[in-house]
Amino acid sequence: MVAAGPSTISDTDPLRYERTVEYGVRLLACDGTEDGRIVEELGDAATADHVAVLVPGNDNYLGNYFNQKRATRPRANAETLLNTMREVAPGERVAVVVWVGYRTPRGFGEAVSRRPAMDGARDLARLTRFLPSSARVTLVGHSYGTVVCGLALEQGRVSDCVALGSPGMGTRTRQELGFEGNLWAALGPSDWIRFFPRGHVGEVGHGPSPMRRGYGARVFETGDIPGHCSYYLQGSESVRNIARIALGRYDEVTPVTVPVPRRVRSEQVREVALS
Questions:
Q1: Would 4 be classed as within a structural domain?
Q2: What would the pLDDT profile of 217-269 be if each residue is shown by its tens digit?
Q3: Any idea what the CATH number is for the domain that residue 113 is in?
Q4: Whole-prediction pTM
Q5: Nearest Cα to Cα of residue 236 among 71, 98, 15, 77
Q6: In a domain, 3, yes or no
Q7: Side-chain-facing half-sphere of 264: CA atoms under 13 Å
Q8: Structural domain includes residue 181
Q9: Of 46, 141, 144, 179, which residue is the least packed, with the fewest Cβ within 10 Å?
Q10: In this predicted structure, what is the pLDDT of residue 258?
Q11: Distances (CA, A) of 215 to 154, 168, 174, 201, 222
């Protein structure tokens, strides 16, 4: 688990989207504070035919964004996905945007609240409208990031939404998402998030898992990936399927087989980070 920065669950100013170069990388937004938000562009989203927007979960913020000791850091996941998209479709123009554009919860206690997702969803929807209208945009949320994605769908310009290891998407039903595009979901065989409480009262709880039978998501295969944070594992069926979805190659996506969950260790269930 990474060391958490100071908690900042509160209303935030809207992000200003524009293309700049800071920290030696191409950014679409950054508020410049240690505990703040950052949105990085990998590839050229301005000319891309297909743009995947990665929305991570807990304990991600500018202060740890460039920490190379974090094996599951969002920008490393984005690089893996971008390379996989290029391998799957070498002739296509593709880009990946890493959207740490909200004040992420710190630990399990804050992650049961929808407030951070509600605050961030407006900026995420605005990003989808900032991206070129000619590009097909796919939101790829992981863990708490799937809640943000779910709440942004109604006002966003999105073709597909992918929910990875989701604690729920912030609504009680698929219909409440207000989304007519394609909803996809995946759950790794040993992901402890399956034990996350599924309530939805006031601003607490995120509703049912999109994996639930009858919810309306298209469930795809991850392969034998470990734990909660391996959905972008290089070479995995999980990241290949995410790439296929982002490229619109739906016929190549492998559907889930009969799931046989691994035994989840008790210490995994007690994890407090959803990142």
A1: no
A2: 999 999 999 999 999 999 999 999 999 999 999 999 999 865 445 544 444 44
A3: 3.40.50.1820
A4: 0.89
A5: 77
A6: no
A7: 18
A8: yes
A9: 46
A10: 54
A11: 17, 11, 6, 19, 19
CB 219 within 8 A of CB 254: no
Tokens of 58: 């807990």
- Residue 94 identity (one-letter amino acid): V
* Residues spanned by the domain of 186: 28-269
Nearest to 53 by CA among 35, 33, 29: 29
- Whole-angstrom distance, CA of residue 225 vs CA of residue 134: 34
Token duo for residue 154: 């109604």
Kindly state whether residue 10 falls inside one of the protein's structural domains: no
